[in-house]
UniProtKB/TrEMBL annotation:
One of its GO terms (molecular function) is histone H3K27me2/H3K27me3 demethylase activity. InterPro entries: JmjC_dom (IPR003347), JmjN (IPR003349), Znf_C2H2_sf (IPR036236), Znf_C2H2_type (IPR013087). GO terms for cellular component: chromatin; nucleus. GO terms for biological process: chromatin remodeling; epigenetic regulation of gene expression; positive regulation of gene expression; regulation of gene expression; regulation of photoperiodism, flowering; regulation of post-embryonic development; response to brassinosteroid; unidimensional cell growth. Pfam families: JmjC, JmjN. SMART domains: JmjC (SM00558), JmjN (SM00545), ZnF_C2H2 (SM00355). It comes from Populus trichocarpa (Western balsam poplar). This is Lysine-specific demethylase REF6. It catalyses: N(6),N(6)-dimethyl-L-lysyl(27)-[histone H3] + 2-oxoglutarate + O2 = N(6)-methyl-L-lysyl(27)-[histone H3] + formaldehyde + succinate + CO2; N(6),N(6),N(6)-trimethyl-L-lysyl(27)-[histone H3] + 2-oxoglutarate + O2 = N(6),N(6)-dimethyl-L-lysyl(27)-[histone H3] + formaldehyde + succinate + CO2. It comes from the Eukaryota. The lineage of its organism: Eukaryota, Viridiplantae, Streptophyta, Embryophyta, Tracheophyta. Belongs to the JHDM3 histone demethylase family.
Length: 558
């Protein structure tokens, strides 16, 4: 498929400087432009790896990081300073090149739970031009088989607990909890690494990250070094976020795009990152108190848990200042209740995709008041709102499918030319599948996934809207809404509800409550109670699992 070159895509964004509204909408091209200050990433033709780029930014910053902690692992009480981390990156990259004959563009499969070693492995491999392909250690054998078929790795990194899930690879599997691996981190000094320098092109593949698979089979998303370098160069932080004493707690998985980008970005700013092996709510509260955590990237699920749990009263959470929230829309009502409970903290919503990286975000206290929005477009990103039926591009205030273009858009899906052609058009536009709109000031709002809209008679019902109403009920801990087949209406909204402990709320009470708040066609017409709503590591509802569950029993008569 012939798509525009990276340089052509980046140049296109400057060709419509006239007829731009205050919200960034270009009347001539019918596109939305970023309102963030322009950023100039390194020239695309300059040889540069992600690791080289962020190391250069770190060295040129005024933030003293030599003896500052980069990573902290509370479960083991271990930590790694920036100085130690940089030395380990150089040592491991040199050791892998000389001992394992790893070459540029080889693929490395990584099946490891969070640890101090994983970020070092990522940055060392990227320094060598080796493509990293991290996967969920909890993946099933069939899921791993599919991912390995897509990525075709030469080598793997695993632990003694996860290695049994992997087949043999041409260059073997390295156990990162073995003495042999530890020696690779320290056996070569930085000054001995000069002879092992690898020239990496920004167009080389840097990572294969796996899409969540919430609407189909998991796909391998191919990201180049340029796809990561450009948004990192454009990424802005508010003055409060640049506090050199800020501490970030990363509860998101490092194999997910959110965790991966955050890891790279925090390293670039010289921040301290606290890693957790798994999400345990009370343990997270203890870690916040012990390490005076100021920043937490979270999913809406965690925001809801913080809001509704009485455990928060047991711990000193006064250090918390910022919650970067992504993965799914967060309602205005929930955000306002959260602000009342944690008045010292701001929720900064954002939106991103594995295929596009960071797309938009809220910056600063004033923008945080736009509770229902996921912010303004990040630098170097442009967007269109397109009617999915006619292809017509809409202006502010109208809903349609969000299309994106910019230097962070993926190269494509590995091993799936058909899916790539369906998602990327010939002009480099990525069709997100998300139903969205921009307001007149350039703030983006996510309505729902197009494929997840419930078709009730002639109407379209967004599940997210109903979920947000359900979650505003103090007796409901979590909820998900799915389409349920109906002979007369086609589909009806059905809710899966997790009651809060001690609650006896009934199906009738739930349906009556929602019916009072929505138009008749949006009413919930069936309720099932469950112990937990299945979600992806990023907090997205796995609706297919619920739909399969609903249709597998005696519930469905069609």
């Amino acid at each position: 498929m012939a798509t525009k070159s990276v340089l052509a895509q980046e140049t296109t964004m400057t060709t419509h400087a006239i007829n731009i509204t205050k919200g960034g909408y270009c009347l001539e091209s019918k596109t939305f432009q970023s309102l963030r200050p322009p950023a100039t990433p390194p020239p695309p033709h300059q040889p540069l790896s992600i690791t080289q780029f962020i190391l250069s930014l770190l060295h040129s910053s005024a933030i003293p990081t030599t003896q500052k902690n980069f990573l902290i692992m509370p479960s083991t009480r271990q930590s790694l300073t920036y100085s130690e981390a940089i030395n380990q990156i150089y040592s491991l990259s040199s050791s892998l090149k000389s001992l394992y004959n790893l070459n540029k563009n080889d693929v490395s499969f990584i099946l490891c739970p969070p640890s101090l070693h994983v970020p070092i492995i990522y940055l060392s491999l990227l320094y060598l031009g080796v493509t990293i392909s991290p996967a969920n250690p909890l993946s099933s054998n069939s899921e791993l088989t599919h991912q390995i078929q897509l990525s075709k790795p030469k080598i793997a990194f695993a632990t003694s607990q996860t290695a049994h899930k992997l087949p043999s690879f041409p260059l073997g599997t390295i156990l990162i909890d073995s003495p042999e691996f530890i020696s690779l981190l320290t056996q070569i000094s930085k000054r001995d690494c000069a002879t092992n320098h690898v020239e990496v092109s920004q167009s080389d593949m840097a990572a294969i990250l796996y899409s969540s698979g919430t609407t189909g089979r998991v796909k391998g998303v191919s990201l180049t070094h340029r796809n990561v370098i450009a948004p990192i160069a454009a990424f802005q932080k508010s003055s409060a976020e640049l506090d050199p004493h800020a501490v970030s707690l990363l509860t998101l998985p490092l194999f997910h795009v959110f965790g991966f980008f955050l890891l790279i970005n925090e390293f670039r700013w010289g921040k301290t990152l606290v890693l957790t092996e798994r999400f345990d709510f009370e343990q997270v509260l203890k870690v916040v108190e012990r390490y005076r955590v100021s920043d937490m990237p979270v999913s809406p699920t965690i925001i809801l848990t913080l809001l509704k749990s009485d455990l928060t009263n047991k711990y000193d959470l006064s250090s918390l200042r910022r919650f970067s929230c992504g993965g799914a829309p967060l309602s205005k009502e929930v955000a306002e209740k959260f602000k009342r409970k944690f008045p010292q903290a701001e929720i900064m919503q954002g939106y991103g995709l594995t295929e596009a990286g960071a797309v938009s975000r809220i910056i600063g206290p004033e923008e945080c008041n736009r509770h229902a929005s996921v912010g303004r477009l990040c630098g170097n990103m442009e967007a269109k709102i397109v009617d999915p039926l006619t292809g017509e591009a809409f202006g502010p205030g109208k809903r349609g499918e969000l299309w994106l273009r910019g230097p962070s858009i993926m190269k494509g899906y590995v091993g799936d030319e058909k899916a790539t052609a369906e998602t990327l058009d010939s002009e480099g536009w990525l069709k997100t599948g998300d139903l969205c709109f921009f307001d007149s000031e350039g703030f983006l709002y996510i309505v729902d996934r197009l494929k997840e809209l419930i078709k009730y008679k002639a109407y379209q019902v967004p599940p997210v809207e109903l979920e947000q109403l359900l979650l505003s009920n103090p007796e409901i801990a979590d909820a998900a809404v799915i389409p349920y087949p109906d002979e007369e209406a086609g589909q009806i909204p059905m809710a899966y509800v997790v009651r809060k402990p001690g609650s006896n709320i009934t199906e009738a009470q739930i349906m009556d409550s929602i019916a009072k708040q929505v138009a008749p066609y949006k009413k919930i017409r069936r309720v099932a109670f469950t112990d937990a709503v299945p979600r992806s590591p990023a907090g997205k509802i796995l609706r297919r699992e619920l739909i399969n569950h609903a249709l597998s029993g005696a519930l469905c008569k069609l």
